[in-house]
Write a structure and sequence with these properties.
The protein is of the alpha+beta class. It has three helices and seven strands, in the order ββαβββαββα. It has one domain. The chain starts with a strand and ends with a helix.
Length: 127
């Protein structure tokens, strides 16, 4: 379980390393372009019942930590889905602390050649 520390929040948001690696790439790409977006999640069992949303903005401090010292393999399909979610009015939604994020399920959808090439060139690498 990795963590996102955002601004002056007391408790970090805990997210599975693989999900966090994908969120990190999309978030940093958007923030580097000076584009803000929302990130939402359901509260964990240790917190009061509910959900939270933060406005991700380039001027607010952000830190990612990962439990696994080795970078995760990134999926271009998942990056495309996350980038599309980040560009939507709903933003990125993490379904639970340790489950894959899903603004919408990826299913068997594969990006078209142009979409995959664009995302790969913009966000390629390892988180």
């Amino acid at each position: 379980m990795g963590m996102i520390y955002y601004g002056g929040t007391e408790l970090p948001l805990r997210i599975a390393d693989e999900t966090l690696a994908h969120v990190k790439v999309v978030a940093l790409t958007k923030l580097r372009r000076n584009e803000s977006f929302t990130l939402s999640w359901q509260h964990s069992a240790e917190q009061p019942r509910g959900r939270s949303t933060i406005w991700m903005h380039p001027s607010i401090s952000l830190r990612f930590t990962f439990d696994d010292p080795e970078p995760c393999e990134l999926s271009s399909v998942r990056l495309v889905d996350l980038a599309n979610a980040a560009n939507s009015s709903g933003g990125i939604t993490v379904v639970s602390d340790d489950v894959d994020l899903a603004d919408r399920p990826t299913g068997d959808r594969k990006p078209g050649p142009e979409e995959a090439s664009r995302v790969t060139s913009e966000m390629a690498g390892r988180a």
